[in-house]
Amino acid sequence: MRAEAARWPRVTAFVLGLVVVAGCALNKGSALAGDFEQEWAGTPDVTTVDAKGDNTLPFLGSASGTLVVADGTPAERVTELADELRRYVAEHDGTKGRITADGVSFTVVADEAHTGEVVALWRSLTADGRVVEADIDTVPAGDVRWRIEVDAVDAPAAMAVFDDLTADGDRHRSLSAVTSLEVRTGADVRPGLHVETGADGRTPGEAIAAYEAVRARHPVVGATLKPARAAVRLAPGADLAAATALARSAAPTLGDGIEVDIDRGN
To answer: Which SS3 state, helix, strand or coil, does residue 186 take?
Structure first.
Protein backbone atom coordinates (compact mmCIF):
# COMPACT_ATOMS: atom_id res chain seq x y z
CA MET A 1 0.00 0.00 0.00
CA ARG A 2 2.87 2.30 0.90
CA ALA A 3 4.67 1.49 -2.40
CA GLU A 4 1.52 2.26 -4.40
CA ALA A 5 1.12 5.61 -2.63
CA ALA A 6 4.73 6.49 -3.34
CA ARG A 7 4.22 5.72 -7.02
CA TRP A 8 1.46 8.35 -7.49
CA PRO A 9 3.70 11.48 -7.22
CA ARG A 10 5.98 10.04 -9.90
CA VAL A 11 3.04 9.28 -12.19
CA THR A 12 1.61 12.75 -11.62
CA ALA A 13 4.94 14.40 -12.42
CA PHE A 14 5.26 12.32 -15.59
CA VAL A 15 1.77 13.28 -16.76
CA LEU A 16 2.39 16.95 -16.04
CA GLY A 17 5.61 16.74 -18.04
CA LEU A 18 3.74 15.29 -20.99
CA VAL A 19 1.20 18.11 -20.78
CA VAL A 20 3.95 20.75 -20.84
CA VAL A 21 5.73 19.11 -23.78
CA ALA A 22 2.45 18.68 -25.66
CA GLY A 23 1.57 22.30 -24.98
CA CYS A 24 4.83 23.48 -26.53
CA ALA A 25 4.28 21.26 -29.56
CA LEU A 26 0.65 22.30 -29.80
CA ASN A 27 1.64 25.98 -30.05
CA LYS A 28 4.47 25.43 -32.50
CA GLY A 29 4.41 28.98 -33.88
CA SER A 30 4.78 30.49 -30.42
CA ALA A 31 7.60 28.07 -29.65
CA LEU A 32 9.45 29.03 -32.84
CA ALA A 33 9.03 32.72 -32.03
CA GLY A 34 10.36 32.16 -28.53
CA ASP A 35 13.37 30.29 -29.89
CA PHE A 36 14.09 33.16 -32.29
CA GLU A 37 14.00 35.80 -29.57
CA GLN A 38 16.18 33.72 -27.28
CA GLU A 39 18.73 33.03 -30.02
CA TRP A 40 19.14 36.66 -31.11
CA ALA A 41 18.74 38.50 -27.81
CA GLY A 42 21.82 40.54 -27.00
CA THR A 43 23.24 40.43 -30.54
CA PRO A 44 25.65 43.36 -31.03
CA ASP A 45 24.23 46.21 -33.18
CA VAL A 46 20.68 44.82 -32.88
CA THR A 47 18.43 47.13 -30.84
CA THR A 48 15.22 45.08 -31.01
CA VAL A 49 14.35 41.44 -31.62
CA ASP A 50 10.68 41.08 -32.52
CA ALA A 51 9.16 37.66 -33.23
CA LYS A 52 5.56 36.60 -33.72
CA GLY A 53 4.20 33.08 -33.88
CA ASP A 54 1.27 31.83 -35.93
CA ASN A 55 -0.32 28.72 -34.41
CA THR A 56 -2.32 27.76 -37.48
CA LEU A 57 -3.40 24.24 -36.48
CA PRO A 58 -2.67 21.91 -33.56
CA PHE A 59 1.01 20.95 -33.75
CA LEU A 60 1.49 23.13 -36.84
CA GLY A 61 2.65 26.72 -37.05
CA SER A 62 5.26 29.20 -38.18
CA ALA A 63 7.04 32.29 -36.93
CA SER A 64 8.40 35.54 -38.30
CA GLY A 65 11.29 37.24 -36.55
CA THR A 66 12.76 40.67 -37.24
CA LEU A 67 16.13 42.09 -36.21
CA VAL A 68 16.03 45.88 -35.92
CA VAL A 69 19.56 47.15 -36.47
CA ALA A 70 20.91 50.28 -34.78
CA ASP A 71 20.97 53.40 -36.96
CA GLY A 72 24.36 54.05 -38.48
CA THR A 73 25.49 50.43 -38.37
CA PRO A 74 28.00 49.89 -41.22
CA ALA A 75 26.71 48.10 -44.31
CA GLU A 76 29.34 45.41 -43.84
CA ARG A 77 27.90 44.55 -40.43
CA VAL A 78 24.33 44.42 -41.80
CA THR A 79 25.59 42.09 -44.54
CA GLU A 80 27.19 39.91 -41.86
CA LEU A 81 23.95 39.80 -39.86
CA ALA A 82 22.01 38.87 -43.00
CA ASP A 83 24.32 35.91 -43.62
CA GLU A 84 24.01 34.76 -40.00
CA LEU A 85 20.23 35.06 -40.21
CA ARG A 86 20.23 33.16 -43.52
CA ARG A 87 21.98 30.25 -41.82
CA TYR A 88 19.50 30.36 -38.95
CA VAL A 89 16.51 30.28 -41.32
CA ALA A 90 18.06 27.37 -43.22
CA GLU A 91 18.38 25.40 -39.99
CA HIS A 92 14.97 26.29 -38.51
CA ASP A 93 12.14 25.21 -40.78
CA GLY A 94 9.00 27.31 -40.38
CA THR A 95 10.83 30.47 -39.31
CA LYS A 96 10.95 33.58 -41.49
CA GLY A 97 13.80 36.00 -40.87
CA ARG A 98 13.77 39.74 -41.52
CA ILE A 99 16.07 42.70 -40.94
CA THR A 100 15.22 46.39 -40.62
CA ALA A 101 18.14 48.76 -41.12
CA ASP A 102 18.28 52.44 -42.10
CA GLY A 103 14.58 52.56 -42.97
CA VAL A 104 14.58 49.53 -45.28
CA SER A 105 13.19 46.16 -44.18
CA PHE A 106 14.00 42.97 -46.05
CA THR A 107 13.45 39.24 -45.78
CA VAL A 108 16.36 36.82 -45.67
CA VAL A 109 15.91 33.38 -47.23
CA ALA A 110 17.91 30.18 -46.91
CA ASP A 111 19.34 30.41 -50.42
CA GLU A 112 22.67 32.27 -50.44
CA ALA A 113 22.28 33.72 -53.95
CA HIS A 114 18.82 35.16 -53.24
CA THR A 115 20.02 36.63 -49.96
CA GLY A 116 22.98 38.21 -51.75
CA GLU A 117 20.58 39.85 -54.21
CA VAL A 118 18.32 41.27 -51.52
CA VAL A 119 21.25 42.62 -49.49
CA ALA A 120 22.62 44.33 -52.62
CA LEU A 121 19.23 45.97 -53.19
CA TRP A 122 19.10 47.02 -49.52
CA ARG A 123 22.50 48.69 -49.97
CA SER A 124 21.44 50.65 -53.05
CA LEU A 125 18.08 51.72 -51.60
CA THR A 126 19.59 52.97 -48.34
CA ALA A 127 22.20 54.93 -50.31
CA ASP A 128 19.53 56.62 -52.48
CA GLY A 129 18.42 60.00 -51.13
CA ARG A 130 15.18 59.73 -53.12
CA VAL A 131 14.05 56.79 -50.95
CA VAL A 132 12.34 57.45 -47.61
CA GLU A 133 11.72 53.83 -46.64
CA ALA A 134 11.14 50.47 -48.28
CA ASP A 135 10.04 46.91 -47.64
CA ILE A 136 11.27 43.84 -49.52
CA ASP A 137 9.38 40.68 -48.67
CA THR A 138 8.69 37.23 -50.05
CA VAL A 139 5.24 36.17 -51.20
CA PRO A 140 3.68 32.74 -50.60
CA ALA A 141 4.83 30.54 -53.47
CA GLY A 142 6.56 27.27 -54.13
CA ASP A 143 9.81 29.06 -54.90
CA VAL A 144 11.30 32.41 -53.86
CA ARG A 145 9.31 35.34 -55.24
CA TRP A 146 9.46 38.95 -54.10
CA ARG A 147 7.21 41.91 -53.34
CA ILE A 148 8.87 45.34 -53.17
CA GLU A 149 7.32 48.52 -51.74
CA VAL A 150 9.14 51.86 -51.76
CA ASP A 151 8.20 55.28 -50.37
CA ALA A 152 9.89 58.14 -52.25
CA VAL A 153 10.40 61.80 -51.35
CA ASP A 154 8.31 63.19 -54.23
CA ALA A 155 6.59 62.26 -57.50
CA PRO A 156 9.64 62.66 -59.80
CA ALA A 157 11.68 60.55 -57.39
CA ALA A 158 8.97 57.89 -57.26
CA MET A 159 8.88 57.59 -61.04
CA ALA A 160 12.67 57.52 -61.31
CA VAL A 161 13.02 54.79 -58.68
CA PHE A 162 10.25 52.78 -60.33
CA ASP A 163 12.03 53.05 -63.68
CA ASP A 164 15.31 51.96 -62.11
CA LEU A 165 13.74 48.91 -60.50
CA THR A 166 11.82 47.78 -63.58
CA ALA A 167 14.57 48.41 -66.12
CA ASP A 168 17.68 47.56 -64.04
CA GLY A 169 18.85 51.17 -64.05
CA ASP A 170 22.16 52.55 -62.89
CA ARG A 171 21.08 53.07 -59.27
CA HIS A 172 19.22 49.84 -58.51
CA ARG A 173 19.24 46.29 -59.78
CA SER A 174 15.96 44.56 -59.04
CA LEU A 175 15.61 41.02 -57.74
CA SER A 176 14.95 37.95 -59.84
CA ALA A 177 11.33 36.73 -59.72
CA VAL A 178 9.65 39.95 -58.56
CA THR A 179 5.87 39.48 -58.59
CA SER A 180 4.94 43.03 -57.62
CA LEU A 181 6.56 46.44 -57.22
CA GLU A 182 4.93 49.54 -55.72
CA VAL A 183 6.57 52.95 -55.48
CA ARG A 184 4.66 55.82 -53.92
CA THR A 185 4.96 59.18 -52.22
CA GLY A 186 3.82 59.83 -48.66
CA ALA A 187 0.17 60.62 -47.99
CA ASP A 188 0.97 64.29 -47.30
CA VAL A 189 3.18 64.82 -50.38
CA ARG A 190 1.81 66.97 -53.23
CA PRO A 191 1.79 66.21 -56.06
CA GLY A 192 1.43 62.60 -55.05
CA LEU A 193 2.11 59.49 -57.09
CA HIS A 194 1.45 55.77 -56.70
CA VAL A 195 2.80 53.54 -59.47
CA GLU A 196 2.81 49.75 -59.43
CA THR A 197 3.21 46.66 -61.55
CA GLY A 198 0.58 43.98 -61.87
CA ALA A 199 0.67 40.85 -59.72
CA ASP A 200 2.46 39.19 -62.63
CA GLY A 201 5.15 41.89 -62.74
CA ARG A 202 3.67 43.62 -65.80
CA THR A 203 4.60 47.31 -65.94
CA PRO A 204 1.96 50.05 -66.45
CA GLY A 205 3.48 51.43 -69.64
CA GLU A 206 0.31 52.98 -71.08
CA ALA A 207 -0.80 54.38 -67.74
CA ILE A 208 2.58 56.09 -67.36
CA ALA A 209 2.30 57.48 -70.89
CA ALA A 210 -1.14 58.93 -70.08
CA TYR A 211 0.15 60.47 -66.85
CA GLU A 212 3.20 62.02 -68.49
CA ALA A 213 1.11 63.46 -71.33
CA VAL A 214 -1.29 65.13 -68.91
CA ARG A 215 1.45 66.28 -66.52
CA ALA A 216 3.29 68.03 -69.36
CA ARG A 217 0.29 70.27 -70.13
CA HIS A 218 -1.84 70.48 -66.97
CA PRO A 219 -1.28 70.88 -63.21
CA VAL A 220 -1.48 67.43 -61.60
CA VAL A 221 -1.91 66.99 -57.84
CA GLY A 222 -1.92 63.20 -57.73
CA ALA A 223 -2.01 60.00 -59.75
CA THR A 224 -2.35 56.23 -59.37
CA LEU A 225 -0.87 54.18 -62.20
CA LYS A 226 -1.46 50.45 -62.73
CA PRO A 227 -1.26 48.22 -65.83
CA ALA A 228 -5.00 48.54 -66.50
CA ARG A 229 -5.69 51.92 -64.88
CA ALA A 230 -4.51 55.51 -64.92
CA ALA A 231 -6.23 57.74 -62.37
CA VAL A 232 -5.03 61.34 -62.61
CA ARG A 233 -6.22 64.17 -60.37
CA LEU A 234 -5.89 67.76 -61.57
CA ALA A 235 -5.56 71.00 -59.63
CA PRO A 236 -8.71 73.15 -59.36
CA GLY A 237 -9.27 75.24 -62.47
CA ALA A 238 -7.56 72.82 -64.85
CA ASP A 239 -9.18 71.97 -68.19
CA LEU A 240 -10.72 68.57 -67.43
CA ALA A 241 -11.93 67.85 -70.96
CA ALA A 242 -8.59 68.66 -72.57
CA ALA A 243 -6.65 66.63 -70.00
CA THR A 244 -8.95 63.64 -70.44
CA ALA A 245 -8.55 63.78 -74.20
CA LEU A 246 -4.76 63.87 -73.82
CA ALA A 247 -4.77 60.86 -71.50
CA ARG A 248 -6.99 58.81 -73.82
CA SER A 249 -4.85 59.71 -76.80
CA ALA A 250 -1.66 58.61 -75.03
CA ALA A 251 -3.19 55.33 -73.80
CA PRO A 252 -5.81 54.29 -76.36
CA THR A 253 -6.19 50.69 -75.19
CA LEU A 254 -6.93 51.50 -71.54
CA GLY A 255 -10.48 52.61 -72.37
CA ASP A 256 -12.51 52.94 -69.16
CA GLY A 257 -9.29 52.48 -67.21
CA ILE A 258 -8.57 56.19 -67.82
CA GLU A 259 -9.91 58.33 -64.96
CA VAL A 260 -9.23 62.07 -64.87
CA ASP A 261 -10.89 64.35 -62.33
CA ILE A 262 -10.49 67.65 -60.50
CA ASP A 263 -9.27 67.86 -56.91
CA ARG A 264 -12.14 69.03 -54.70
CA GLY A 265 -10.05 69.39 -51.57
CA ASN A 266 -11.52 66.36 -49.79
So the answer is: coil
